[in-house]
């Protein structure tokens, strides 16, 4: 069993910021593409940001310019900095090493006034 742990969620007002963290075992963390997803009840999981082993970045149109994905190889951690949050960003956020079935419990982000 692989333990992947997301954290950093919470409740913020529109326009606010949060930074999500995702920690994984080192042998899983290194050499993988990492994706951040989000999911709203009743909808499919949506990929919002990706980072390759060479730090190539990709974003969904809905978050480009507001979210930034990064990684710290010394800490086996992937981050998602979320700025200018909107109510439609409300979801449970998950990280995932691409092409694996390793998932954590997710972290809830709620954007509400």
What does this entry look like structurally?
- This protein has 113 residues and is mainly β.
- Helices cover 4% and strands 45% of the residues.
- It is built from 1 helix and 10 strands.
- It has one helix at residues 26-29; strands spanning 5-7, 10-12, 18-23, 34-39, 46-51, 57-59, 67-72, 77-82, 91-97, 107-111.
- The strands form 2 sheets. A 6-stranded mixed beta sheet has the order 2-10-9-4-5-6, with no helix packed on it. A 4-stranded antiparallel beta sheet has the order 1-3-8-7, with no helix packed on it.
- Strand 7 (67-72) and strand 8 (77-82) form a beta hairpin.
- The longest helix is centred in the N-terminal third of the chain and has 4 residues, at 26-29.
Give the key terms.
45% strand; 4% helix; 6-stranded mixed sheet; mainly beta; 1 helix; 113 residues
Q: How would you briefly describe this protein structure?
A:
By secondary structure, the chain is mainly beta.
In the predicted model, the low-confidence regions spanning at least 5 consecutive residues are: none
Query: Termini, distance in Å?
Result: 39 Å
Topology order in helix (H) and strand (E) letters: EEEHEEEEEEE
| Residues in helix, % | under 10%
Q: Indicate the proportion of strand residues.
A: over 45%
Strand adjacency order, main sheet: 2-10-9-4-5-6
What is the 3D shape?
globular
Instruction: Compute the CA-based radius of gyration.
Output: 13 Å
**Tally of DSSP helical segments:** 1
Q: Compute the number of strand runs.
A: 10
Tell me the structural class. mainly beta
* Biggest sheet layout: 6 strands, mixed
Mean pLDDT: 95
């Amino acid at each position: 069993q692989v333990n992947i742990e997301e954290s950093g969620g919470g409740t913020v007002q529109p326009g606010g910021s949060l930074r999500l963290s995702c920690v994984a075992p080192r042998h899983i963390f290194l050499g993988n593409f990492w994706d951040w997803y989000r999911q709203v009840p009743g909808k499919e999981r949506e990929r919002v940001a990706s980072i390759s082993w060479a730090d190539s970045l990709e974003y969904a149109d809905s978050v480009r310019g507001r979210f930034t994905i990064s990684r710290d190889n010394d800490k086996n951690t992937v981050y998602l900095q979320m700025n200018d949050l909107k109510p439609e960003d409300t979801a449970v956020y998950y990280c995932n090493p691409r092409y694996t079935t390793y998932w954590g419990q997710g972290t809830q982000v709620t954007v509400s006034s």
